[in-house]
Amino acid sequence: IEQLYNLEYVVLEQNSLTGRISNSFGTSLSNIVSLYLGDNSLTGTIPSTLGKLDNLRELSLRKNNLSGLIPLELGSLHEIINLHLDENGLGGPLPDFFSSLLSLNKIDVSRNILSGTLPQSIGTLENLSIIHMDNNQFVGSIPDSWWEGLSAFEEIYLYKNELSGSLSSNIGNMLNLVDIRVSRNRFDGTIPSEIGTLSRLRYIFIEDNKMTGAIPSEIGNLIDLEEMRLYGNGFIGIMPDSVCNLKSSATAKTAGSTVAMGGHLQFLASDCRGDTPEVQCNCCDNCRR
Asked: The whole model's pTM is what?
């Protein structure tokens, strides 16, 4: 394979490949556009020579047994669109090299042992829509640059880390957000009312944190919301009627036109168990505590 100098596409996923990834990727094989080596049993570290693949748009090394650090040289992949390094044993900090990856649309580094803080430079990526960083050991807060700059964001998976801080009111800038999952961290503060402006939002998973306060009635504006998990926090008060109304899908006629009432909420869970629940909810599908 090392002599196939014009090779552009390498798709070797879901085999039983073992051993290390060859340094020939990036040296003799410099024209590769897509490199798929996922779902194998590859070991060792990610070769720094991959950073020399100037034309690389898709890199998948997911579901292997790779270890060590993510090489800084991957920050030279200026054409990269999809980067999948999930389900390995990669450790150390996630390099803050994203400001040069302007075409990046999806990054998945979930299910590793990555640590340190979340990279600030991710907030500069105007084309980034999907970010999966769950099941790691990240600490600190979500950078302000993420809330302020990621208007194309559709999915943000940060659950099962050690993140802290609060959810910014600037979440209202993420107008394309469909799915936010930040469960099982150490987030505190309240749910920002601005979340009610995210008309495309379908999933809100913020269970098992340290959040407090009342559940904002503005969530009732999210008519496409399908599932919301709030338990394992310190929320108090009554589940707003506007949220409960999302569990119905009625329509009404106004001035000769049909207007949608209610929504598509299929599953709602909060701390509503017991005689004196923290959250009074007569429309929840699952009550905890």
From this structure: 0.92
